[in-house]
Input
Amino acid sequence: MSTKKADLIDAALSGIGRTAERAMRMNQRAAARLGINPTDMQVLQLLQSAPRTSTDLAKLTGLTTASMTGLIDRLEKAHFVTRVRDESDRRRILIHLNDSRARTEIAPLYGPLLGTWRRALSTYTPEELTLIADFLTRVEQAFDQELDPR
Output
């Protein structure tokens, strides 16, 4: 491998680390503005893609199920989430993000950043965007493999 290519790979890897660190700081700032703690914010982000059980959320965050119950109680009291009985298995309770509250209180905290990213991405060609999207998919797959190596 050429020295230039190795240097570019090192720069990309460093960039991933810096981006992860900034994402963590952004989430901490958003949580503080909402009056919740960063772990609460992490759970809200996990619920953006789909409702989940408290057991699933506990596994994803590394918390005990007892701690997760308290966390969900706090978020429910603050009207960020609701508990809903699963239609396909009435024994299961799914935690749903309150979409209305997320749109009015959480989205505005991230809107300026998303706008900046959108403007930056709009400067790339469709071919470059394809490459960027492929790279990010590969980064996600690497994370997934390390987090759940089944």
Observations:
- Residues 1-35 form one domain.
- The two ends are 31 Å apart (CA to CA).
- The chain has a mean pLDDT of 94.
- Residues 21 and 40 are 18 Å apart (CA to CA).
